[in-house]
Amino acid sequence: MNATKFALLALALTLALPAVGAETPQKPGKGLHEIPDPELNLMRGRYTVGGNAVAWFGVTMVSTWQTTTGQSLQGAMTLGMDFSKGGNVPKVTFTPIVSITDANAPLPDSSGRSIDGSGLNNVAGVSQSVQIAGDGNRASNVMHLNVRNDGVVPGVSGSIAGNATAQSGDASAVASFDGNAARLQLTIQGQGAVQQWLRSGSVGQSVQLTSDGQLVSNRLQIDLVRESMAGNLPLAQNVAQAITLNRGIGGIGGQ
Predict the structure, then answer these.
(1) Which of 162, 169, 190, 203 is the most exposed place for a label (fewest CB within 10 A)?
(2) Helices (H) and strands (E) in the chain, counts
């Protein structure tokens, strides 16, 4: 139900934007100051309007790929951002896992087949894509959003682990986080790629296959925990806190 309300609210705000943009610009009221575009550009959405602050933001990604030759590629990652302790930056945790099982037969020839997903780099918001140049393949992209308002942060311990990579012949698996974007990618040269990502303004899943009989899946889950702020805080103070907490995530520094 929370996820449905969240989606409906986002849709309502989106539909309202054209009408707002058509109005004649007005000067801000007395005692109020416009926030300049450079300042707005640094906001990352860690503040929720309506008396609720984000206490926890977590992402879990799992990708699997089973080939007809018996080769298996697997990758997973968990990324958590704990805002419950206050301060200017969240406590960030990142745990990646990747593995590859060798094939027991040569890879099939897929020459002459091609796909192009470069346009996905320009997509904002949520995107899911499946591109297949082959027969007998099974592919799935699944995404879940869980929203809780109880303020209870998951008891996750740890820190930012290093990026995880695995390589076996033409197959590779990578799970990475650079402070600005998280990415999970499985690739077999000449056969395709399976990807998931979270970056500024975009979250997505992509399957690209140029072979036959492949079995692949992407699963992504976003967990958002909100907590109520003190109702007697002045509006100006709430706005000031929002601007402070929403500065670029690139400066987390691993803690």
Answers:
(1) 162
(2) 3, 12
The torsion angles phi and psi of 219, rounded to 5 degrees, stand at -130, 130
Phi, psi of 245 (to 5 degrees): -75, -20
| Alpha helix positions (H), 23-104 | 37-41
Neighbours of 90 (CB within 10 A): 22
Q: Which residues of 143-182 are buried (b: 16+ CB within 10 A; e: fewer)?
A: bebebeeeeebeeeeeebeeebebeeeebbbbbbbeeeeb
Evaluated on CA atoms 145, 146, 149, 153, the torsion sign reads negative
Q: Are 39 and 79 in contact (CB under 8 A)?
A: no
What are the φ and ψ backbone dihedral angles of 192, each rounded to 5 degrees? 135, -165
* DSSP string of 230-245, one letter each residue: PTTS-HHHHHHHHHHH
The string of pLDDT tens digits covering residues 203-212 is: 899 999 999 9
Q: How far is CA 244 from the centre of its chain?
A: 22
Domain boundaries, the chain: 2-8+40-103+127-246
Where does 113-251 have alpha helices with state H?
A: 235-245
Tokens standing for 66? Answer: 């089973």
Report which of 117, 111, 113, 143 is spatially closest to residue 130, judged by C-alpha positions: 117
**Does residue 253 come out as left (phi exceeding 0), alpha (psi in the -120 to 50 range) or beta?**
left
How many other CB atoms sit within 10 Å of the CB of residue 107? 18
Which tens digit of pLDDT belongs to each residue from 58-90? 999 999 999 998 899 999 999 998 888 776 678
What's the whole-model pTM score?
0.67
